[in-house]
Amino acid sequence: MDAISLLKSDHDKVKKMLAEGEATTERATKTRSDLFAALKRELEIHERIEEEIFYPALKQHPKTRDLALEGYEEHHVVDQILGELGQTDTADERWAAKFSVAKENLEHHIEEEEGEMFRAVRQGFSREELEALGARMAELKQLGEQVA
Length: 148
Prior knowledge:
CATH superfamily: nmb1532 protein domain like
Structural class: mainly alpha
Number of strands: 0
Shape: elongated
CATH topology: Four Helix Bundle (Hemerythrin (Met), subunit A)
Helix content: over 70%
Radius of gyration: 16 Å
Number of domains: 1
């Protein structure tokens, strides 16, 4: 699987989890806790493959360097929001508001990656390079899932 397909698959999974989380109520504390834990695990693995393999490769190409740097910063912002969310009781009325902000930030990040970034990557990388990146990313992802 090439790098873009792998990331797109991860994005689809995350978007589904975000929609499920947004649909919960304050009474669904166990559902919220379980969903948040699963989302956080998924995002940790996803960030790791992007930050250790995908973004460093993008930084090497002039057309994708700035996009990679922006991606790192967007990860940082999402990590801060998720950290706050993890410290908020799932029954607290603020949990839904914080989750909504996290969802908006994640959806924005996904849109930018799948739009501008993926277009630039398709132009700047050969099919073979994308397949090689995808293989390395899949291997690291599998290791992360085994540990989690």
